[in-house]
Amino acid sequence: MSAYAIPRAPALVIWALGLTQIIGYGTLYYSFSALAPAMARDFGWSEEWVYGVLSGSLLIGGLMAPISGSWADRFGAARVMVWGSLAAALSLVACALAPTGIAFVAGLVAMEVASGFVLYTTAFAALAQIAGQGAQRSITHLTLIAGFASTIFWPLTTTLHEYLSWRDIYLAFAALTLIVCVPVHAWLARQDTGARATGTTMALEDAPLVPPGQEQWAQIVMLLGFALLGFMSSAVLVHMIPMLASLGLGAAGVFVTTLFGPAQVLSRLINMQFGRGLSQPALGVVAASLMPLALVVLVTTAPLLPGAAVFALLFGLGSGLSSIVSGTLPLALFGRVGYGRRLGTISSARLIVSSFAPVVFAVVAGATTTPATLWMVAGAGAMSALCFGSIWHRFSRVAPA
Q: To bridge 134 with a disulfide, which of 8, 104, 126, 316 should be the other Cys (CB 3.0-4.6 Å)?
């Protein structure tokens, strides 16, 4: 193999992982909003309390993310995903059969902890272990496939809920996880073992962009960039509809939100077709710049509908690219050694910051105005772009395509 031949994960591996990511995100995340009102009625809680429990569970899951990453490095990511999908199925069953609110909370915490062992963080690590540096392209393909999770599971869950209780739906989702995800992850574990045995993942040197002695600086700046990006994304997405309404868009704000999902998928398609010559640090700058730019467009044009539509498209494009960069940038900067642990640390930083972002947004908006709050959030996004820009400037070497 030539020095410039970068292997990629086989298409079947990417599609198999994509299927499990759709099911994982669909059952563990996207189904929750459709079922939360019924959960609240069942336990005699307010919906705000149910979402508060989810936020707390996400925070605990974030704290566990570095452990899942370290285990992926130590035992093999695909093998960790086998046990993670088993744990996810059991946690869904625990929630479905919970006799009390306390038991439900315990099940939900277990669900969010398990998600860290089966979703993007571990899936990206699995691709890196199977394909090495070629995983950068494979990760882009995977995020494109998994981007349809909300498109599939929001209407699926809503339709099922017309005939089944939320408990029955969770039991069905647990069965789906056991029937599909566990066997697929077991098969992937065998692919990873075979690749290691034949040495295919070692055919290319990782050639990380960061030279020895500069890893700590790059790690800190990268984490800060992703944390600020997570803050901006969480603050805006959670408050999207009321935020648009307060800017005078009214019912049109609901239409604007429908543009976000397609824009995410579009960004991944554009990156697949035209992003091959762009280094991963540069892609991080683009992703982090699009999102604050979107907020500037929104604030300066509201309440005009075309401006809000441009905001949704730009924010969706940036969000879609950021999910790619979260997997490809640490691989490009540091290589495969310790990749799972780094992904876990990034995921932890983003989840912890994201869990507080909606509250900060609400407090600041209550004390000032929505436009002023959006300028603050845009400032956080601009700082994120500066972080990735400093990495790009310092480590500007572009790996061969």
A: 8
Three-state DSSP at 368 gives coil
Residues 286, 319: Cα–Cα separation, whole Å? 11
Distance in angstroms (rounded) separating the CA atoms of residues 100 and 54? 16
Question: Which pair of tokens denotes residue 169?
Answer: 């739906």
**Phi, psi at 308, each rounded to 5°:** -65, -35
| Nearest residue to 128 (alpha-carbon basis) of 264, 280, 13 | 13
Considering the entire predicted model, what is its pTM? 0.80
Domains and CATH numbers, the chain: 11-202 (1.20.1250.20), 215-394 (1.20.1250.20)
Instruction: Convert the pLDDT of each residue in 158-176 to its tens digit.
Output: 899 999 999 999 999 999 9
Nearest to 226 by CA among 106, 366, 307, 333: 333
Cα–Cα distance between 36 and 34 in angstroms, integer?
6
Q: How far is CA 175 from CA 112, 178, 365, in A?
A: 18, 5, 43
* pLDDT on residue 3: 38
Nearest Cα neighbor of 124 from 65, 173, 178 is: 65
**Residues 175, 381: Cα–Cα separation, whole Å:** 40
Q: What is the CA radius of gyration of the chain?
A: 21
Q: Tell me what percent of the chain is helix, strand and coil, each rounded to the nearest 5.
A: 85, 0, 15
Contacts of residue 241, defined as CB under 8 A and 6 or more positions apart, other chains included, come to 253, 254, 257
CA dist 20 and 217 (Å) reads 35
Burial readout 163-180 (b: 16 or more C-beta within 10 A, e: otherwise): eeebbebbbebbeebbeb
Per-residue DSSP letter, 248: T
End-to-end CA distance of the chain: 14
Percent of the chain with pLDDT over 70: 92
| Residue 100 neighbours by CB under 8 Å, 6+ apart | 43
**Residue 303 preceded by cis peptide, ω within 30:** yes
Q: What is the dihedral of CA 82, 76, 337, 110, to 10 degrees?
A: 30
